[in-house]
């Protein structure tokens, strides 16, 4: 760890973005721990303010257990594991202090008790069926320390449901707009607010939906400005980006 | 022409759907005239209430001229030729009484002076760039005897433009909703009205629009009910269907 | 509920589109009921003449139960739930007066005993395998009060089966043409009738069918006029639109 | 040339599939002539009964001239060059005895005066716009010595035009069915005849036609049996295959 | 049944294409039998020389049983049912004299004992994994009365396996070339033979094979002439077409 | 304009986001001006802090001239017109005070002399060929009042070019990462910085690039967190979103 | 076996590429053994230095058993069977001396005890989830006699993990770069090394990954030179090619 | 330039891969020269043995001129510029010593007079139309110092043309197999040789070729082992990789 990095670290401690214990672990830790099948990057928290997130899909029980063990032993907190089944979560719970949302298929290991939540991220969904993806975004954002407001089932087919919640939308610092099928929700929201919007297409639908392609294309082609898009069903990614934007500070 | 067909024809004369002159021509005409490269179906008007429409694209000057000549010689009126260039229209104007819209690229030969226009078809467009397709639909519908209300540039990115015209939309008997890019307009209209909606995706856009694919998929996946879709840029088709629906009579 | 809406409501009572009991519930009900994961729009019946339809796929047992409960408690009748499994239907039957079609995977809650069925919607299928989608359309249309004629297995490969039923087709007020594989049925029907046709591509087929894409593209590119298309396997949507068209009244 | 090949050759002379002059050239010719940029296969006529066909697209003037020169110098007759522009044809006409169809974009060099034409290939087209592809097939088949009957503009949107020509179709030995847009023509023909059908999708159409993809998929998914398909706009290929089938002899 | 049809029928009896018993049944049978969910076309045998083939996929046990019963009661023989599972076949075997190939997933009901097999259809496969599709083609062709030669696992990656069987290929009247993955087999065969080739792409492969798309596109773009293509995995279709071509008679 | 909107407006005047003159115009202006083919939304500036942007493609000279005239007459400044040709720009320059970038194909009408530029947006490009899209983003962002740093030709094929500019990247408040071909640039940047990244795929490339599809898919599937994506070649959209994020203020 | 082939064989014996026992079997063996459903090519080892590899997917137990039996009886060693399940492997283990990797789903029959491993192939993976494909490549390459270095989880999102292993990469003779999701790994490696790189896209990912399409397109469009690509998930193919390149000898 | 890099450089001088003059320039040159719109990487030659190649498409005259000027001023030789038009080449020829191939659209600046060409790369093409891509590969490989053998028009439709050149193929150290349409050439070559094969799909073809997609998919799915693939029409890439493989040295 070079001088600039240590300085950076100390600044993060000062701003309470990182606890002194975590800082200590970081200073002592090797840059990267090599487990053979995985190389854990312990400096990511330094570089990016958030420790490594674990993409759970396609990893074996043993791989997940070992990766988490290493991170826990370095004193990391709020370790996020995405896209794991209930069964996998149950297995991991034997070994770790783990919270799991079966709906969002996301687990948090070593969750800190009382994270202060700040700012205002509104997560809007087109329908009830999109909620699992919304929750993945919501839990990610909350775990990273953001206030989240859930505004579900406000799809464009019943525009009044959306319009009667305009205030909530206009008070947001960032909006995550989640929709399947035709994916028109972000476009309509885009016309009423002036904050950044993260659009999340979902694979909800059938037929010419082609597993979310229709919603994805719709969102990429939005004629509303101020919208950017993440992968189909990528609730985690949206929550992560919203965290970064929500925590922006004023230009000095 | 069998007995039932003649009866049908006479009923159409009675209801003024067809003039006595046209009826005469129909009765005398052979069922189909074979020009070699084209077989003109003179009984279509009997079967479907509208004479054969000519798809102008990919036809040569000479083919178009001959087909129209045959129809004119049988005393047909309001012959519609779609998708022809200004240049082709100028060529045909030498020979026929022809009206042309360069924007919609549609021509009418032997237009009747004062067709009574009935009912109420509203044509709404997402943006200014979609207007050529709208006009193809509008001119088709007007030529077939329908009242048309044009409501252009009311796309979802500025939802207030649409909502301030709710009355107009709710008074329609049929709505043609035309949009490119994300194609969300029909979905939003679908939530406010209770009449049939014909959605027309346009190829307006760029990049992941893929020449209208994004709007097409969006419209097919609409979560609003009451929407059916025609081919990309098919303004003519939408005008034709709207004509049929607009002229529906009450269940006896 | 403002003055115009109440007036509208009373008109619907007068025309028997809505019962006095339902009208009462509507007047008393809040515009939208917020269950958190769902926002039920009680005024949809006012705006669109049909109460909210429930898309059953991807909703949990509990979500479905609660949504239906809310609607039943507001005295709604003929509540349609689409795309639910036999197992889900069995669960819901414990709590509600529910009719289920395992073939069409559609359920009706609080079905009114003797709905008068009017008009004439013909549902034609290309093959035997398309029948589940046809039945989804048929049950939707019947529940909404339409007469339905089923004309199954009349695909274009044996054109005589279709032609020997021309009368039935020509008497229809609306036709729903359902086909998988090459999806040519609506095109052929389009050449013989003069009423609006709703084309429904199905995912029946294999190989280069690509889950219904071949039928969808075929129908969108039909050279017959008067055809509009809904999503692959969207029997419900076709039934819903056919209802709107079938019930059109004459131009005043 | 080994013994079997010479025997084969003599048999072809006997059956008049090949003239004695051509046979002589073949016996004397090297198997393959190498021009560097092209390797002309002089034994193809022996193996396949037809000399090498030249795909004109993407070849330079000089390459075409040299390839044809070589073939002419070996005394080949009826050399077919497909997909060349009028301009290229004019250039080649300086050097060779060449017949060109601008519609079909096909040229024949060293055409024999009076080829006897046998059998019966019917070429049916959906519309007028498909005729250039039909003509590519027709000229290919005629050049190879087949009788061709042209039945154009009999698309399924006006099924009566097709049905009134049933006799012509039922007398065919092979049918080439050419159609763009929804490409349903071969399916309907497939239900009325009992001979092999070659389906040719064309790129005629717009929007969701995707340059012939809709017609191609439609034809591949036909529920009529007895249909096989060639590439989009491949009139030549269809004519070539039809030639082979038309000339089949009875099982001994 | 009109005069011409009866004449046709009698000619078929004379040529032994149809037995007197079958002819009797046909004469007595109504043109089409309507089971509600299926309309069986009893004149198909007259029009096309082969009775209706049953596409088994997506049909229920009861539908299959009833359709077959009707056909058996009309004395039809060699009734082909494609794409049915072992389980379905076992169910049907309770009621009918049924032969089943689990590999090809094809069943024959009321198989005639000693059909004379004529001509020569060669079925070549690229690999061992393509054999189920080959067998569907082979059993179809054999049931329709054709001699079939099986030449399996001769894919282009080991060109010597193919070349050492050139004689077999050159003696064929028709070749069915079946291949998955890159689907190059028909192209190579196309260069060595002079008979019609039916190419069948299979869904064998993985990754960028996209369920047979790679083989399908490869075959449609073959630079060998004389090849036409059927749907992915459509062994039945290939066998059916090969039957028609194999049985062609000499031009009179 | 209701009370809240006026308050909002006055706050924007106070924060110098809007000049007193502009505020005056807004207060006096009607909400929406209807030109028939376009409905200009004058309150967008109130709702979203930026006046309506004009998408120039597919609009006629006259439409553009009239829309701009209306906006200029309402005293709007810094009116952005995207995607117009040099020729169109020259036509418009006759009537308006217009600045044009031929590389970015973007025009600014009524540009204010000295806009204070704030914050720090870094625009990185993969290659030299991506610069036109970068410039569209850069000019948009600068016109909206942001400082922009251009870091061009730092694609991943020469990772050292990127790494030697790490400081510049780490000092950014927002990064716009623009790349064609494989589109890997945002992923690599995503691993080194902790600010939001807007990824812009470009259509630069050939073959299996499919007009930008490869870069688009690559960016949507990035395994770096913190990246969201806009449409292919949508430099304007990226600049617009970056403006919103760059101007975020601290959570109060 | 002709003279040249025998000479070739003896040279391979001399270079120890083949054992005297294997050579004996080859000399005695027929060129091709025909099992009906498979034609085993015993000369492949002569022509290509490696005996036939068995693609296990879609082959039955019995087919696999018989093919392996034939090869074992001819004294072949190190027979590779790819893509077989644990269950199949267990079945085969009853009959053969078989080693199986459940992760890579690859089996080796008649493995030679101590194959000398030469050269240096580095296999790098983007993530932990890509390891099964890496192992397929690794085991293939090792079985063919190559030294393999595994460098896993060095994806571009944490570029430092890759850069800290530059030495290992620069010492490779060939690199196999395996990545899913955005597939950017080969591009970055391509900028640091000067040896051939084989890129392997994997189907790891979700949503707009489309089963590996995103990684495949990314790799095909790499702006780094020196990269060629194999099919999605084709670890075997990559290992096989790497073997050929690794064993290249100097130009004489 | 650090110690290791200098050592590396000196080794390359020793092996004559680089001239002393070039080495001198490299040592003196800055790592990267920043032209604003381009960052030229002068150490690429050190790292990869070949100086930066210029992708000419989408670069302006001025950009190309300046980039080449900078490289020439550093004494680089054999600078390759791909994909430039004849017109651009003519412009650049005013300023530089430039050789241009209009067929391959490739230019070489500062070509060294007598580069020794080593090894043996065979470039095979399916047809005459593929030659421009072949030449791009050939000129690239020759400029980098490789012997190239051109074997054109040996596509699989006439397999004898290929087989009669087996010796040439079997003597190659690397083969570049170039083909459009069905792209089967590499598969067949793959079965006869034991050296690495680089497959290059071309966009030659029409219809379902989809601009080279058919050939690309075919090559990726080849069942021959030993084949890897580059982008559609990427002759340059193939030549570059072949250079690396051809110059491999024996394992020490």
Q: Your description of this structure?
A:
8 copies of one chain form a homooctamer. With 252 residues, chain A is an alpha/beta fold. Chain A has 2 domains: 28-109, no CATH class; 118-246, 3-Layer(aba) Sandwich (Rossmann fold), CATH 3.40.50. Chain A has 11 helices and 11 strands. In chain A, the strands form 3 sheets. Chain A has a 5-stranded parallel β-sheet with strand order 8-7-9-10-11. In chain A, strands 3-4-6-5 form a 4-stranded mixed β-sheet, sandwiched between helices. In chain A, strands 1-2 form a two-stranded antiparallel ribbon. In chain A, strand 10, helix 10 (213-220) and strand 11 (227-229) form a beta-alpha-beta unit. The longest helix of chain A is centred in the N-terminal third of the chain and has 13 residues, at 61-73. Chain A starts with a helix and ends in a 6-residue tail after the last helix. Chains in contact: A-B, A-C, A-F, A-G, B-C, B-D, B-F, C-D, C-E, D-E, D-H, E-G, E-H, F-G, F-H, G-H. The A-F interface holds A 47-50, 53, 55, 118-119, 173, 191-196, 198, 216, 220-221, 223, 225-232, 236-238, 240-241, 244-251 and F 47-50, 53, 55, 118-119, 173, 191-196, 198, 216, 220-221, 223, 225-232, 236-238, 240-241, 244-251.
Order of helices and strands of chain A: HHEEHEHEHEEEHEHHEHEHEH
By CATH reckoning, the class of the largest domain in chain A would read: Alpha Beta
**Structural class given helices, strands, pairing of chain A?**
alpha/beta
Which assembly state applies to the chains in this document?
Answer: homooctamer
Overall pLDDT confidence of chain A: 90
Q: Indicate the CATH topology of the largest domain in chain A.
A: Rossmann fold
* Cα radius of gyration of chain A in angstroms: 19 Å
Q: In one word, what is the shape of chain A?
A: globular
Name the biggest interface: A-F, 41 and 41 residues
Tell me the β content of chain A. Answer: 15-25%
Number of strands of chain A: 11
The total of helices of chain A stands at: 11
What composes the largest sheet of chain A? 5 strands, parallel
Low-pLDDT segments of chain A: none
Please list the strands of the largest sheet of chain A in the order they lie side by side. Answer: 8-7-9-10-11
């Amino acid at each position: 760890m070079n001088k600039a990095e240590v300085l950076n670290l100390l600044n993060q401690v000062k701003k309470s973005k990182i606890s002194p214990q975590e800082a200590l672990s970081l200073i002592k830790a090797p840059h990267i721990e090599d487990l053979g099948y995985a190389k854990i990057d312990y400096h990511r928290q330094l570089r990016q303010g958030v420790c490594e997130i674990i993409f759970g899909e396609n990893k074996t029980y043993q791989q997940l257990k070992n990766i988490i063990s290493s991170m826990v032993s370095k004193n990391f907190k709020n370790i996020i594991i995405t896209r794991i089944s209930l069964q996998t979560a149950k297995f991991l719970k034997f070994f770790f202090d783990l919270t799991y949302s079966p709906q969002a298929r996301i687990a948090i290991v070593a969750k800190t008790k009382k994270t202060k939540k700040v700012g205002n991220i509104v997560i809007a969904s087109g329908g009830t069926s999109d909620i699992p993806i919304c929750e993945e975004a919501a839990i990610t954002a909350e775990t990273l320390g953001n206030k989240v407001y859930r505004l579900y089932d406000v799809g464009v087919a019943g525009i009044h449901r959306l319009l009667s919640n305009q205030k909530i939308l206009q008070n947001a610092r960032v909006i995550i707009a989640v929709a399947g099928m035709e994916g028109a929700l972000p476009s309509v929201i885009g016309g009423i607010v002036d904050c950044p919007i993260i659009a999340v297409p979902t694979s909800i639908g059938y037929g010419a939906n082609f597993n979310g392609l229709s919603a994805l294309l719709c969102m990429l082609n939005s004629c509303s400005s101020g919208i950017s898009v993440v992968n189909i069903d990528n609730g985690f990614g949206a929550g992560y980006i919203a965290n970064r934007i929500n925590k922006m500070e004023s230009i000095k």
